[in-house]
Write a structure and sequence with these properties.
With 84 residues, the chain is mostly beta strands. The protein contains one helix and six strands, in the order βββββαβ.
Length: 84
């Protein structure tokens, strides 16, 4: 498929592969189904979602590469601040 100059071709929607540790289901989630929290340390940086199969709340640690992929894919991000 070619595009005419000045016209943009819509990109395919971004989907993230995920798994539920509770029911062991594997599925794909849209950026709107994920939440990313970036804290001051590795312990306070994580992503979360609700399993579409069993409804469990899932929270997993997010290293630098995961943070990069999720923010680049349009996942809502919350930056956690510490007082001190």
């Amino acid at each position: 498929m070619s595009a005419m100059p000045g016209l943009s071709v819509p990109a395919a929607p971004v989907l993230f592969k995920a798994a539920c540790p509770e029911c062991r289901s594997r599925f794909e989630l849209s950026p709107g189904a994920l939440r990313l929290a970036i804290g001051a340390s590795r312990r306070t940086t994580f992503y979360s979602f609700t399993c579409p199969e069993c409804g469990s709340a899932v929270r997993k640690p997010a290293g630098e590469r995961i943070v990069e992929l999720l923010t680049g894919g349009g996942v809502n991000t919350l930056r956690l601040h510490t007082t001190g």
